[in-house]
Amino acid sequence: MASIASGLRHARCASSIAAAPWRSSIVPRPSFQLAIRSITNDVQKPSNTDLEASSAAESVLIPYQGVTHARVLPATPSYFSREPLFNDLYIGISKLLTKYNHLPTVPPSEAPQMPWTKLEEMRAQMGEPIKSSHYAKVMRVAKRLNLIEPSLRPAEVTVALTEFTRDINPFLNMPNPIQIDKFGRAVGVGKRKESTARAFVVEGTGEILVNGKTLSEAFGRVHDRESAVWALTATERLDKYNVWVLVEGGGTTGQAEAITLAVAKALVAHEPALKTALRKAGCITRDPRTVERKKHGHVKARKMPAWVKR
Amino acid sequence: MASAQALRTLARPAIPVAPRIQPVMRSLVAAFSTTSLLSAAPPAVKSRKDLPKKTKKTYKKKQNIVPVKKPGPGERKAFRKRIQLSNNSALPVTGIENLEAQTMAKGESSGKMFAIPDQVVDQLRALEAFKTTQTWNLFRKPHVLVRKETVELMSKLEASVENKEAFKCVLTGSRLSGKSLTLLQAQSHALLNEWVVINIPEGQDLTNGNTEFSPIPDTEPMQFAQPVYCLKLLQNIYKANKAVLEKTPLKMDWSRLTSLKQGATLADLALSAKESEFAWPTLSALWTELTQPGQPPVLLTLDGLAHINKVSEYRDPSFNIVHAHELVLVRMFVDALSGKTKLPNGGAVIAATSQNNTHYRPSQELVLSQLEAGQAGREVPKPNAYERKYDDRVYDALKNSTVLRLEGVSKDEARVLMEYWGASGMLRSVLDTRAVAEKWALGGHGIVGEMEKASLMTMRM
């Protein structure tokens, strides 16, 4: 943090730096000349003729007028630090925080979700060896700025915060909401293992058909029947809806659990408030477990061939 | 310093060696011993047998073998096939009426539970109407739910007595939907109304070749009787219908068959068969008596219809296959079902199909679907032109019957049933509309057996 602090000190002391940037006022020279020699040459030239001297005096620029520094002054005092771009970013954002510290904030849970740039990503973008502790401090400031009440947030804060966010916002990548069609049906799709189920849920009296068969014909095991209707049982909606399911692929357990997911999704379309209850019942998250692939040298996924003496 | 001492110890032991006990040389010095034992010579080794034997040490634990008494012959099967109709652990359910003669035919008893009277339970047991797969053993006493289809069937039975015409019916429906139980209800209705009930508990017992058979002389094509089965059936008929048979006098002269006194009853006729050779003639005589006008109505029932509609496992003396309809007992049933044998006193012939214990039966499927479509006024399905296994005898046997399809119970009936379970202490959870709807859905839209499986037998899975 020492480098950032020193950079800040520079900014505080030499306020004129920002006002008169050196680089913009400098005129490119026609050719490379050593500075001292050229002074002597230029001084000798007008002594030849007065006419020439008078015309030359207008055309030739007198160097070093208004120049206070002997060398090129960097655009930013952070130039001398280890991470100049990052430093500048921090200075800018800290200034914003001092400026808008008085604005009301919202609790972190209500602040807009931002796809913050990760440390590795920021290192790659800036090409600077950013320390993780420095990154954490900067992100704290950025997250504090994000807490400003969204309706009162100044435009410059929004602009400044874009520097800390990724280009792609994964939070905007939402699935299309399930619509209830004109017949009152909501179609949910669920998967488990190799099975895929489509459930058409409609308000009714608790009749369930799986591939045109009743639950007892479709599933011989009572446990499978129970897991197929678990989304409705857990929310006590079994006698309120009729379900018509198409399911294919996989075995009986997979099919039954695919139906659970499909019915839950369609049920959420009917009653969005049930989503939390369904999540607690384990009907929202897809179970990612599938068959582990076989490996070479193994008999199955993990099994090794039996040891043979020679 | 230390090395010097070590050297010294090496050179000369610090502790003097203990004086050894020198062996006495027996040959040189005379033995100083008073015992003859020591002086005795070691046992002579004369052969390999005298050498000390190597014994292999085993680390195996000795098995603690306790002799277990194995079940005797037939004991396991008897255990498997036993019928348990009561359970003292179940709570007795009060406030349920007993079945009476007309109870099941009345419309208002639809959707109610009724207790089977003890007298009828004994008769039904004699008829082998209870099955091992039914859950009678979970409850204190046998009770039945009278459902809509039951009332429909019983009113048909009542009508048959009035019309003096046989009611021929095939019960069909999906697995565990209560076909056998409806058959049992029909039997109890008949018993309560003093009918004569003849029950063939399993169609497959007749055709799977497990019972003895013998050709009947002078028949063309050859027919076969099953004497042992017939004798058992006669005894069961007598046991179940004793009261009715003892009241009914004979109408025909059977002196050719047996020596019966004047004024003998049907019970005497049934009891006259003491040997299996006379079982079929006696059964035939009894059946002929029962089909005479003026006798009590008859209920003839059979479970597992598909098994009597196939080629049996039996062979004739020239080793040709025997169609099941060539077995006289089966033929007796089939003739009654097809209407060939008239029942002038009314009565019914009811056959129940089975979905578990069955086989490929295209003709039966065809004729039942056609009958059902005809009854419902739908388009009658046509036979499959590419099907080669159609059997005309089966088609003709079934074409004159009516089909009664049994599927799930309604939610109200399911509720009544579940309340009975709850009162028996079998169902511990709160019984409300939601619970009923859940079990109704889990039981495949109210299939009674599946509902039992989902709520009563969860531990048995």
UniProtKB/TrEMBL annotation, chain A:
Species whose genome carries this gene: Trichoderma asperellum (strain ATCC 204424 / CBS 433.97 / NBRC 101777)
GO CC terms: mitochondrial small ribosomal subunit
Gene3D superfamilies on file: 3.30.230.10
The protein's name in its UniProt record: Small ribosomal subunit protein uS9m
Keywords recorded for this protein, A-Z: Ribonucleoprotein, Ribosomal protein
GO molecular function: RNA binding; structural constituent of ribosome
One record GO biological process: translation
Record InterPro entries: Ribosomal_Su5_D2-typ_SF, Ribosomal_uS9, Ribosomal_uS9_bac/plastid, Ribosomal_uS9_CS, Ribsml_uS5_D2-typ_fold_subgr
PROSITE patterns assigned to the protein according to its UniProt record, in alphabetical order: RIBOSOMAL_S9
Family stated for the protein in its record: Belongs to the universal ribosomal protein uS9 family.
From TrEMBL, chain B:
Native organism: Trichoderma asperellum (strain ATCC 204424 / CBS 433.97 / NBRC 101777)
Keyword Ribonucleoprotein: yes
GO BP, sorted A to Z: mitochondrial translation
Keyword set includes Iron: no
A GO CC term assigned to this protein in UniProt: mitochondrial small ribosomal subunit
Chief localisation class: mitochondrion
Pfam families: DAP3
Protein name, as recorded: Small ribosomal subunit protein mS29
Keywords: Mitochondrion, Ribonucleoprotein, Ribosomal protein, Transit peptide
Subcellular location: Mitochondrion
GO molecular function: structural constituent of ribosome
Family classification: Belongs to the mitochondrion-specific ribosomal protein mS29 family.
Signal peptide extent: none
